[in-house]
Amino acid sequence: MKICALCKKEIEVDKYFSRKAICPHCKGDLHICLNCRFYSATAHNKCLEPKAEFQRSRAKANFCDYFVFGDGKLWPGSDREKAEAMRKLEDLFRK
To answer: How far apart are CA 89 and CA 81, in angstroms?
Structure first.
């Protein structure tokens, strides 16, 4: 299962899916930088793949040949990230 970066809901995608694929929940594009495993807000051009071309919009479908759907990592500021941080903090002070 993968997670849509736009609505943060789980989705099921094939290994090979179209550039025009959309999320069944929010109807947003899926072949976007925000869903790619190479996306990084702190990297040059916001991409860890040095050969990838600059993409003007990170939330719209693009033609990047290096796109690989992310493994469900937590996005900065997401509810899941906050919940995980709180769990770790509580575990730290339980003893």
So the answer is: 12
